[in-house]
Design goal:
By secondary structure, this protein is mainly alpha-helical. Helices cover about 75% and strands about 0% of the residues.
Length: about 400
């Protein structure tokens, strides 16, 4: 065999080794994100499966904290959306044309489709939707379902959360994906991201105030409008998503601290400060004038993300939470259906006669076990085969 053949074989093996090393580094680099997604999805199950329990006030506040898990998802999602835009367009902003942006948006939205569409069909046909979020409409109309299929349900207070009872998150995320090429074109630096955050705060405040003074819905449906303007609406959550953009630019500036001894100390300080602020939000409902509660939680999660990027803490980033984070999407979409099905599985008698903590723990073990099994199967046989097609 000629020396050039040996050289070609060596280069091929070297390239393969380098690719494996790069993939391993990439996996290690974002393990902590899977763990944080795991924490978030467990929080979602906590509030939805145990939120109606008659428990002591301090336990009830901890359970209610699960309702803020979506803010953590928003910070992480916005970060990865800008990473995706960087990979697709780089720093050549002339590539961000209408055609290229539409192609990128289509690919991003397509990733949501298979399990989301199945969830819409299953919840609609089995009647698992909540009439509460439909208001006076009372039922899922054809228009409502079509808006969901097009990911435009975030435009209507009647539609935004009316089928899965959690899809308001996808509604806002889809709208963010839609405008993110424009944001990527204009927001090109850490300073620009900070200004964008400030502008988004002003926009969220104005959106809330204006809709609060204009009664667009009948009196019996005003609760839907109030929830839409202050909580579920895109502009209400935009500041939280801008925190993900700030995080994207910030980590580029402090790359040298990552996994260093200084980074480890800084990570611990940021984590402790974030947890201290989190305790204040949970138990004292602390807030700053003009900044809604969701944004404050977003700031806390921004701090936790930063701390784990600098130097992961095993109590937060470990195989247990990574496992749930890996399957967080199907768990999120189908969580109410999973919880309803689990109600048919009885708990032992001692769960109701002992400590409140035992009841909560056993309930969570039940719903998470069933949910994880379902999500592993849904990912393996539905989501992954669909993604391979595209």
């Amino acid at each position: 065999m000629c020396f050039s053949c040996y050289a070609d074989e060596f280069r091929t093996e070297q390239n393969r080794t380098e690719q494996n090393r790069t993939e391993q580094n990439r996996t290690e680099r974002y393990n902590w994100i899977d763990s944080l997604k795991g924490w978030a999805i467990i929080g979602v199950f906590l509030i939805h499966s145990c939120g109606s329990f008659n428990v002591e006030q301090h336990i009830s506040k901890i359970i209610s904290f699960g309702a803020r898990a979506c803010q953590l998802f928003f910070v992480i999602s916005a970060f990865f959306i800008f990473k995706s835009l960087e990979k697709n367009f780089g720093s050549d902003y002339s590539k961000i044309s209408l055609k290229n942006s539409a192609k990128w948006i289509f690919k991003k939205i397509l990733r949501f489709v298979p399990l989301y569409y199945i969830a819409l069909i299953v919840f609609t046909l089995t009647g698992h939707y909540s009439a509460y979020w439909l208001g006076s409409q009372g039922r899922i109309s054809v228009g409502n379902f079509i808006f969901h299929l097009l990911f435009l349900h975030g435009l209507s207070p009647y539609y935004i959360n009316s089928i899965l009872s959690v899809e308001w998150y996808l509604a806002d995320l889809a709208l963010f994906v839609l405008v993110s090429p424009i944001l990527y074109f204009f927001v090109r630096s850490f300073t620009g991201a900070l200004w964008g955050f400030v502008i988004s705060l002003i926009t969220a405040f104005a959106f809330n105030e204006i809709l609060g003074r204009i009664h667009l819905l009948p009196a019996e449906d005003l609760y839907l409008l109030n929830t839409f303007r202050a909580n579920f609406g895109f502009f209400a959550q935009l500041p939280v998503m801008f925190l993900g953009i700030i995080f994207y630019f910030l980590v580029k500036k402090i790359e040298k601290f990552r996994k260093s001894q200084d980074g480890k100390s800084l990570s611990l300080l940021i984590l402790l400060a974030s947890l201290f602020m989190l305790i204040g939000l949970i138990f004292k409902n602390s807030r700053i004038f003009g900044i809604n509660n969701f944004t404050l939680y977003g700031i806390v999660f921004f701090g936790i993300c930063l701390s784990q990027w600098l130097y992961p803490c095993f109590l937060i980033d470990n195989p247990f939470f990574r496992l749930f984070g890996k399957y967080s999407y199907p768990l999120f979409l189908f969580n109410f259906l999973i919880i309803d099905c689990c109600k048919k599985i009885p708990l032992p008698d001692f769960a109701f006669s002992g400590s409140q903590y035992i009841l909560i723990a056993l309930t969570m073990i039940k719903v998470l076990s069933v949910g994880l099994l379902f999500s592993v199967l849904a990912t393996k046989f539905i989501e992954k085969p669909f993604r391979r097609l595209f």
